[in-house]
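EI: anyone free to look at a 224-residue chain?
SC: sure, send it
EI:
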Amino acid sequence: MRAVLGLISRNKGFVTFMLCMVIFRSAIADWNVVPTGSMQPTIRIGDRILVDKAAYDVRVPFTHISLIHRADPQRGDIVVLDSAGANERLVKRVIGVPGDEIALQQNHLYINGQPASYEPIAVQGIRDDREDPARYAMENVGAMHHPVRWSIAQAGHSNDFGPVTVPAGQYLLLGDNRDNSADSRYFGFFPRHEITGRATRVAVSLDPGNHYLPRNDRWGAALQ
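SC: here you go
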């Protein structure tokens, strides 16, 4: 015990720095590795994303207890949450806020009866397209604009969902990769207290399909 205390005493500057860093990552900002393709093309497999953990609440470090409520998630936000239903950390997009009526008809989105419009876009560099070719479009509804991915192999299959009304204190979250995302269509609504932060940009991107070489064009890229 004395040896441990002595080691801490000799390195108290380093220990203090590391403790501050851990608290900072827990309560203020963090980065997360994205291992799945559920948010492609916005977030790609191997992206390390920056997460603003104080975007919605200032919390007691290492807990979900809110000290200061700053804001609530808005439609279009990309959020990080610790999901009890999924039993893992998820990264998804907010599609429905409390009170919204949400529906998907043939994979086309409706929010409060307003249909989204879709503009085809070209996307390069998605390795999944080699075995599962896809179509890409910019989904526009109200002030929300972001890309989505549809599997060509799934075209014509029934992908209807809803309409459902988002309850108070809950959020409806979807992945941008609409045919390959375990989200509110599987787990239901997500409680507000499970949302721990907002993803803001890509910090670093490494391509796991290419010997983890860096994707330099994605470093620092803002998330739309």
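EI: Residues 91 and 185 are 15 Å apart (CA to CA).
SC: 👍
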